[in-house]
Specification:
The protein is mainly alpha-helical and 408 residues long. The chain contains 17 helices and no strands. The chain has one domain (2-407).
């Protein structure tokens, strides 16, 4: 038991400090973790889960306050930045974190109820996976409602989809290319738009009040948990698509509801990914892929240990992030926001160069340009997730080889 707790607390500390770094993702660290052969396989799996949860939760701070996301928190920039400019950045952070915490309870209930049916449902749906991905994409585009915006969103979807097809089948591995691509779509574009509009960090109201009703909060968290199941089940369907779908189904347009939903989807996705690995040996997240390599097949006891690691990691990380964010904010308000944005762009560029090389820089710039185009056309940047959706549709339709022959 002592070894397990050491692994959990070490993972929390490591995940917390790396989560504060703009643009950092667990996927960038997994190749390093897999070399930790001095740890027992079970201990290493617990460590990775703890790092993943701690980093995911901590990442909401740079995503909201700095506009520099990881791939998991990218979509939170949009509503989070809006509240930040209203002086409610701390509230945006707290909504995301508390939404994540509440989602753990809902996710455990859903896992308990749905697990007996998961294998049969997975086997039945697997041959038809193209259709739910197609309808998710169609829903996203048509949700713009206005004809002009539908046309522009379709354009952004195609542009980002084409970029995804080219880059995912290039010399970069899929994990290496996701970092510059998603950081460009959601991070670089936000930072450049802030520079263009000469945004500044207004004085923030650091209080514990959440301006959201209990009904809306619970509704958003439950919906986030349900759609976290969708993200953990369907390939290429990400947090952004699930969050937008949940938002429209529930008719909750307020950014506070959106942030709760995003926080819930993120944590639910991690839990359902482990559940998928345990039940059908199909990992659905970077952390679960690493755990599969370490453990092979997962037994029920190990599954329970990893779920317990999530509970402990979230329970410790959330109050830690809220406490530290109050201290860091006092430093941020003294910094020139334009200089800060430029520094973050430079930092992200260095990370992209280190992890993905010159090709990654090119992807970073192109994806950032598409993200800026979405802003100028006044459509949601979540359509940029076509970079994953379109390649997945082509793959599951059986047209991948033909498409690659045409392109390459």
């Amino acid at each position: 038991m002592i070894e397990y707790f050491i692994a959990i607390f070490s993972g929390i500390i490591f995940g917390f400090f790396t989560g504060l770094l703009p643009g950092m993702s667990i996927n960038n660290l997994l190749p390093i973790f897999l070399t930790f052969t001095f740890l027992k396989p079970e201990m290493l799996a617990v460590f990775i889960v703890s790092v993943s949860i701690s980093q995911l939760l901590t990442n909401f701070f740079p995503s909201i306050f700095l506009g520099a996301p990881s791939s998991e928190t990218a979509i939170s920039i949009l509503p989070g930045h809006k509240l930040l400019l209203e002086g409610r950045g701390y509230e945006a952070l707290k909504l995301s974190l508390i939404g994540s915490l509440t989602s753990i309870i809902f996710s455990l209930i859903l896992i308990f109820i749905l697990s007996p049916f998961f294998k049969d449902f997975y086997s039945f749906l697997r041959p038809f996976i193209f259709y739910p991905i197609f309808f998710v994409s169609l829903f996203m585009i048509l949700s713009e409602r206005e004809e002009r915006k539908i046309l522009f969103s379709f354009l952004i979807f195609l542009l980002s989809g084409f970029l995804g097809i080219v880059t995912l089948n290039s010399v970069l591995s899929s994990q290496n290319v996701l970092f510059p691509m998603l950081s460009g779509f959601f991070g670089l574009s936000t930072l450049i738009v802030s520079l263009k509009e000469k945004s500044f960090l207004p004085k923030q109201k650091i209080d514990e009040k959440l301006r959201i009703s209990k009904k809306d909060f619970l509704k958003s968290s439950l919906l986030g948990s349900l759609f976290g199941l969708l993200v953990g089940f369907l390939p290429a369907v990400g947090v952004s698509q699930a969050a937008v779908m949940a938002q429209y189904i529930a008719n909750l347009g307020d950014p506070r509801n959106f942030l709760v939903t995003i926080g819930a989807i993120n944590i639910a996705n991690e839990m359902f990914s482990l559940n998928s690995l345990y039940l059908v040996n199909n990992p659905r997240s970077g952390a679960s892929v690493a755990i599969q390599r370490i453990l092979g097949e997962m037994n029920f006891q190990t599954f329970l240990v990893l779920i317990a690691s999530i509970l402990i990691s979230a329970g410790i990380t959330i109050p830690l992030v809220l406490f530290v964010s109050k201290k860091i904010y006092k430093f941020l308000v003294k910094v020139n926001y334009t200089i800060l944005n430029l520094a973050i762009i430079f930092f992200l560029s260095i990370l992209v160069l280190l992890f993905s090389g010159l090709v990654g820089i090119l992807v970073f710039i192109v994806s950032g340009s598409i993200g800026i185009l979405a802003v100028e056309l006044k459509v949601r940047r979540s359509h940029c997730m076509g970079c994953l959706l379109l390649p997945s549709m082509i793959f599951f339709s059986g047209l991948q080889n033909s498409m690659l022959e045409i392109l390459f």
